[in-house]
Amino acid sequence: MKFGVVVFPGSNCDRDMIDALSKDLGYEVITLWHKDEDISMFTVEDCIVLPGGFSYGDYLRCGAIARFSPMMQSVIHFANKGGKVLGVCNGFQILCEAGLLPGVLLRNENMKFVCKNTFIKGNDDIVLKIPVAHGEGRYYADDLTLDALESNGQVIYRYCNAEGIVDEVSNPNGSSRNIAGICNSARNVFGMMPHPERACNIRLGNTDGAKVLKELLLSEKVVPA
Question: Which residue among 5, 178, 187, 225 has its CA within the 20 to 30 Å range from the CA of 158?
Fold first, then answer.
């Protein structure tokens, strides 16, 4: 399995993601420029990653311009064929703008940029410490969409406290139902606001992010949170 990491003007977490996947997890990684279109070197067994940052300076809405880049047209086609795609932070915003994931990412409820460690958990109730760094990370969808996400098992991570309790206090941005990450109904497109690539190296004092990447990208099935 190999990975492609897309770089947009304004991406600032692409090197973090490349290092996490290649140096920490040991996988082949190919850098993909936003103006290019060719991803023929990837099969549906591989994965394309949209990293965090401020693509195109976050003009208009976050991810709204990146959604129309030549590379994203290829990524959309790749995802629709069943290829795995992961969007982290700004990458999550781009996936929602592209219609590959439902919902939108809005300004944080407190209207401030949030940069800190948070706790998230999936279906196994194992609490993971993963950093966030965003100003527009509040996941929002209407109740009908949220109910569908929950019933289909598409909520993959929720914000919680260190004890695993999901409550309002542990929600760093006001996301609907404490949602930190979701997937599509086909379970091959994943989006999350926390940055697992920033928690993959023991020298940083945290390797919980490696568990996230392995669960999302290297397993055949992701079960609901």
Answer: 5
What domains does the chain contain, in order, with CATH numbers? 2-217 (3.40.50.880)
Q: Is 34 a catalytic residue?
A: no
User: Using alpha carbons only, what angle is made at residue 117 by residues 116 and 121, rounded to the nearest 5 degrees?
Assistant: 140
Give pLDDT tens digits for 34-55: 999 999 999 999 999 999 999 9
Assess whether 195 carries a catalytic annotation.
yes
Residue 130: both structure tokens together: 């993963």
Residues 149 and 141 sit within 8 Å (Cβ to Cβ):
yes
What is the reported pTM? 0.94
Q: Strand 2-7 and strand 28-33: pairing?
A: parallel
Q: What is the pLDDT of residue 218?
A: 67
Whether the Cβ atoms of residue 82 and residue 48 lie closer than 8 Å to each other: no
- Catalytic residue (choose from 13, 47, 62, 89): 89
pLDDT at position 225: 47
